[in-house]
Amino acid sequence: MKKLRTAGLALLTMALALPTASGVALAEPADDDPTVPVVAADDTAADTTEDAGATDNDGTDEAAAPRVSAADVTSTACSSVVGADQLTSTITTFSNSQVDAVTAGSSYRMNITGTLANGHCAGDTITVTIAHPLQGNANASYPIYATDGTVAGQLVVNGDGTQATLTLNEWVSTRNNVQLDAYLAVSVATTATEQDTATWTVDGTTYNMPVNPGSEPCTDCDTMPEQAAKWGYYTQNDGDANDTMRITVQIPTTTAPNTTFTITDTLGSEGQRFSCVEDDLNWRYYTSLRPDGNLADGDSTYDTLSKTDTSQISVTQVSCEDTTFTATVTIANAGVASRLYIPVLVTDESRTEFPDAVTVTSDQGYSGGTSTTVYNDQGGGTLGGNDMVPQIDIVKADTDGNDADTEDEAVDLTSTEGATQLIFTITNIGSERLRDVTVTDEITKGAGTVSNLDCDFSQADPQAPTSGTTWEGPFLIDASFTCTADLTGVTDEIHEDVASVDATGWFTGTPVHADNPYHATSTPPVTPEPTPSAPESTPVTPEPTPSAPAPSQSTTPRKNTRGLPRTGVDGTSGLAAALALAAGLGAVVSHRRRR
């Protein structure tokens, strides 16, 4: 990806101190390199475990590196930022050693670290204000890399070095729990005094740090080097070109003519490799130093010295691989010191530290070695976070709170004649805001009707509709809203209706779905059957009793006697028959009762 940097910016890093025989630091002279660093790294400040003091906008002092309560963020692509960034800022040396004061004329690393609020979008910004006597590198532009190596933002310093703006790109919009670790180089004015205070503001929180006066003038800085030394510069390149480093190897002053030194350099970490292009090598020689430690004479291949001119110095690249480089340097005369500049390509620009070590030997018996770490001390940083995972949830219940998710939990709606109101609660349970939200309900079993489905989306976003079944969003993380519907017509057959919600990840475009059933039954009222009426009785006409035959007429006249008429049975026999009949009827009645 093309890095968004200011055209022509070639900022150098790590103008590390060069030790002399007396142990006094000598700065690498500017004429060693046509691209002079705007500020120089300074790791000579005293270490301390205390951070810079911070002051809120209300002017009250707080403990070091406080958390801020609100983000200085403007959103150009999204509806809002959820919560607030939690950022802190400190000033350290470029090796990240803490300091309790800054020194006039020195340069430092301003760190901006913390957690970004979920919901950031492309175009959101974080602002850093830099006040006198501090100043950033004017017009500098530093990439902020994601952990996967892509550019996730750009930290740009304005034209006078008084403000830096970190602009986030679309990478942050698809991540949550994003951690920021950014930094930029700041220098302290050489005219600063103890009466000054270094002041800067990050995201609305102001930090302060005391200022120490500049260092004492250098002493014995004109002493020629007797030992090997090493330091390096980091150069940020525009466009797609790799950033580069220049490793400087200080070669001791010769004690005899025609001395040959062998230099072997070994890189100590990933993210860097030697260029191995012999034409990229450069060198210089000199015979004296000024009192301030700068070179007083000599020449370099950066200036007018031709690489084919071997009258004073001759350099040969013996071997070169990605992590190991070997060269020889032959000096024609005694009393001459030299420096070899070895090019290194940066293959992982998200790194901030690049260690390596060198050994120097000579055919005159010298043997020495040293190591150094080159820092990308101009600015940059990293962003790390979790990929967004969209998810949605729906919970459905009736007005009495019955979930009725299964048939075994079916609610008996007999008392309400097979009717109830349903309530859906829909929540964004994922780690990404959602769009294109649609709520539906479908009967999948049994009788019944679901009607009047309606949702109040404004419960999730005050700007959202208060009624409807569809919403374009954004449906923010952890937000929720409710819908209602009327269920009627449930019978004694098990009823099932399923509420569903569908949506799409706002940034990832991933579709999400959730559903929840509701079960019910109802016993219809029983209509009593009519009691059958007794059948009407039909009058029975008794059959006529046959008449007894008329007695034959006798010619013999009857005898007129007094007493009862004769029946053919004498009285005694008749009485006995009546008694017998009565006894038999009694026996029959008695038998039937005992049944």
Automatic annotation (TrEMBL):
Residues 45-68, 512-571 are annotated as: Disordered. Pfam families: Big_8. It is found in: Secreted, Cell wall. The keyword DNA repair does not apply. It is a peptidoglycan-anchor. PROSITE patterns: GRAM_POS_ANCHORING (PS50847). The keyword Ribonucleoprotein does not apply. The chain crosses the membrane at residues 571-589. This is Adhesion domain. It comes from Propionibacterium ruminifibrarum.
